[in-house]
Amino acid sequence: MKSNKSKGLSVEAVVATGVGIAIVFLLKRFLPIPTGVPNTTIDLGEAFIAFLGAIFGPAVGGLVAFFAHLFNDLSWGDPWWTWIVADGIFGLIIGYSRNFLKLRTEPLTKKKLFQFNLLQIGANILCWGIIAPLGDILVYSQPAGKVFLQGITATITDVLSVGIVGTLLISAYAKTQIQKNRLSKD
User: Fold this and answer.
1) pTM above 0.70, yes or no
2) Could you say which residues of the chain have pLDDT below 50?
3) Rounded CA gap, 7 and 122, in Å?
4) Would strands 41-42 and 33-34 be described as parallel, antiparallel, or unpaired?
């Protein structure tokens, strides 16, 4: 018997991607919290990217992060491709948390939240502490001291944003799900 499941994104995932891009764009564009380091803000959009990735997986996380960041940059002027690509990679990586969180079918545990936060810390270090600054040096010939300061600042603020707001969003969402092992016969 053939499976009716397609290999592409579900309608639900496509809708989540579109809505997610809009929400993350609005968070990035209208709620940036200055850090004191040029072109670096506390970004609540990253927490929402992590939330969507945890529910819908890497494709949605990556697409939302990439396009929301692109549209945000375009709203200010020119796109800064190294950070757009880094954000897409972050969304892709954090989306793999769906594989162990299993928010729709299993209870959320402290161990799973710990694993999620380990993953997001690693993804943030890789994307903002390494990929974005090295990209800025190689593509835009930016001074290393400047871009690594921006990258370290973004890493710290995004770890906190995802660790606090992202964890709260995931925890609240998990409480709304009816998990298989919570069902009982009447």
Assistant:
1) yes
2) 1-4, 186
3) 28
4) antiparallel
